[in-house]
Amino acid sequence: MKFSRPRGTNDLFGERMERWHDVEGRIVRLVRGYGYSEIRTPVFEMTDLFIRAVGKATDIVSKEMYTFSDKKGRSLTLRPENTASVMRAFLENGLHRKGGISRFYYMGPMFRYDRPQAGRYRQFHQVGAEAIGSSNPAVDAEIIDISLSIYSVCGFPPLDVRLNSVGCPVCRPAFKEILIRSLAGYGDELCQNCRERGMVNPLRIFDCKKCGEVKKKLPFITDHLCRECGEHFSRLQEILDGLGIRYTLDPLLVRGLDYYTKTAFEIIHPGLGAQNALSGGGRYDGLAEDCGGGHIPAVGFSAGMERLLETLPESFPGETGDGRVDVCIILIGDSGSMQALSLAGRLRESGLSVLTDLSGRSMKKKLGAASEAGAGFAVFLGPDELEREKATVKNMMTGSQEVLAFDGIGPFIERERDNRGE
Ligand code: AMP
Predict the structure, then answer these.
(1) Domain spanning 327-420 has what CATH number?
(2) Which of 104, 127, 330, 357 lies at a C-alpha separation of 20 to 30 Å from 135?
């Protein structure tokens, strides 16, 4: 082997890919059912977008971005997350002029240069939803409801949402001052990272895995919210209670992106270990302004596909199954490739999935490959059959076989499957 995949990336194929498609399909149907439509933005953006939106002092921007210059010397970055791009696209395409709430969902790869470990990769995939244009806490509740439903439609048991409010530009600066004063008393107990960033971004300490003991002794932001943030937070809890959505208040919860205001939440899976967040989200009422637009309140979430797939319950109700084909057409002899391909095309038109084996290998090997592909039927095309525009069709389950005209193969397979109750 000359090459290996870059550290922190994955190759997806086989059963894992099939499950991925099943999960994606379920999620897409779910979010569309809430009136969200897909948005696709470029995989790279101008670097400044992420600096402005995600925040200079965050780990993502300061350490984890894949940034490069193009041939004209412009600084570009592989997107580390998608919310900034969605907001950029929303404003750039004038979608804010429509008014009301715009609801989008997205899915695709994101890139962060982080230390790879189980559940943490350098290329990973997120599916997320953004509701742009409303400050109503009922929309926060809708987003939390969707984030949870993603897991219930995939067969997960009820999961817990950890919920907090991280305030807004009115109350957060004052809280930061309180926090900085409080942190000064714990200088020696803080890890080096928190000591260094304590003055610039003191809220980040709540995200630090090493400073657990100090964290518990610090003041809570929820005790220092302004009136508007406090009311928004209480109303959201009332709505969630009314909808029967379970959550746990977690005053230590902060998110690794600076754009969040008011609501912040995470969905946790106990089986994930250190990287235990399946998904996270919150409100970002200032992001449109940071991106050069007006004041447009918004709320959204993002779920990691790898972590979802890694914790998918055994009972996951798969649909596409294991990628089995219905039919394998096996050519016997050297000629007849064209007819085999043409027959495959006709069978596919009738809705069957068809694999063709035009190789010169032994019949044993060909049959072995057909079973491995899960083919329920093998269609043999030998020189005699070809001459008569016929083929021998074998039911791989029962072993019975029949010689049939090309036109009769599709209906025959359908009948056989009906008999088996498929
Ligand atoms: P974030 O964009 O940081 O709020 O993350 C949202 C979700 O994306 C997390 O809860 C994870 O499921 C997933 N995620 C974030 N970073 C990574 C990563 N490096 N590798 C795998 N999944 C990730």
Answers:
(1) 3.40.50.800
(2) 127
